[in-house]
Specification:
Blueprint lengths: L2 H6 L1 E2 L6 E2 L57 E7 L7 E3 L4 E5 L5 E2 L11 E6 L2 E6 L6 E5 L1 E4 L3 E5 L2 E8 L21 E7 L3 E8 L3 E5 L5 E2 L11 E6 L2 E6 L6 E4 L5 E4 L4 E4 L2 E7 L1
Parallel strand pairs: 5-6, 15-16
Antiparallel strand pairs: 1-2, 3-4, 3-22, 5-7, 7-8, 8-20, 9-19, 9-21, 10-18, 11-12, 11-19, 12-13, 13-14, 15-17, 17-18, 21-22
């Protein structure tokens, strides 16, 4: 073995991970390291990078400035940190066709965010399109929406507040004698629930509609303790198919949680939230 490698270890040519001397493959991406054995006449050549598997620019490092060199040929998209532990403005390019993101697994790591799962989601480049897939993470993967139909028990987020559209209030079962109480309205009641940390239920709003606005002021569902919520952030319009959620031009956007294990196509300008990290999709 090269004496220098015996002193310094080996840096993987594919993902830049540090490996101990004599490692035959990378501990992070399993790429062969090309380490020569004593029986070989010459050290093995450094393996070439596999197309589509180049590591994106690490978080916290600025993107290449014009004139400093081209982006990888396969990089069509980049992610810019809007808010989170990685630092606002940090950028990295999605040079591979499949890039995992999580707290300890994948190429995009957020080790200081307790709300991020070990492998939280995966960004997928399919031709000219970008998708994000939730990896059944506990806290969920969210994407911004302008207008979207929600089914019952769908989570959505405004600022740092997590809400859930529960659907219509079930009709009471017929009984021979009614219990005292305020009479039900002639139209169905629809429920919106605030979710506290740890998936505990908080406030619940029951309204007959036709719309419910969510925000800091002048809304049916008030969120006054979250500075990242706009005065009128979003609104829900109830209909027999569910509830149509519409963002009202809020600065921070309205997010809807992906169903566990499902994919969602992302457009330029869309934002993805995993844990406390908010990433914006841009052209590389």
């Amino acid at each position: 073995m090269n004496p220098l490698l015996a002193e310094l270890g080996i840096v993987c040519p594919r993902c830049d991970a540090y490996n101990a001397a004599n490692s035959a493959k990378c501990v992070q991406c399993s790429a062969p390291l090309g380490v020569a054995t004593p029986a070989e006449a010459a050290p093995a050549a450094r393996p070439a990078s596999t197309p589509g598997s180049s590591r994106p620019t690490p978080l916290g490092m600025p993107a290449l400035k014009p004139g400093t060199g081209p982006a990888p040929a396969t990089a069509r998209f980049k992610l810019t940190v809007v808010r989170g532990t990685a630092g606002a403005g940090s950028q990295f390019r999605l040079a591979g066709n499949q890039v995992g993101a999580g707290r300890s697994k994948g190429l995009l790591l957020f080790p200081d965010d307790a709300f991020v799962a070990p492998l939280h989601c995966t960004f997928l480049v399919k031709g000219e399109k970008l998708f994000v897939r939730d990896e059944s993470s506990a806290s969920g993967t969210f994407a911004t929406v302008v207008k979207e139909l929600l089914g019952s028990n769908t989570f959505f987020a405004v600022g740092d507040t997590l809400l859930r559209y529960l659907g219509p209030l079930p009709a009471p079962a017929p009984v021979p004698v009614l219990h005292y109480g305020a009479p039900l309205p002639p139209t169905p009641l629809y429920l919106i629930e605030e979710i506290l940390e740890g998936l505990r239920p908080g406030r619940t709003l029951a309204r007959s509609g036709p719309t419910v606005a969510v925000g800091q002021a002048g809304c049916e569902f008030l969120v006054t303790t979250d500075p990242n919520v706009a005065p009128r952030h979003c609104e829900l319009t109830f209909n027999p198919q569910g509830a149509t959620l519409r963002d009202l031009g809020s600065p921070g956007g309205t997010f809807v949680r992906l169903a566990p294990g499902t994919e969602r196509e992302l457009k330029l300008g869309d934002q993805v939230r995993l844990g406390n990290e908010i990433l914006k999709v841009e052209a590389a």
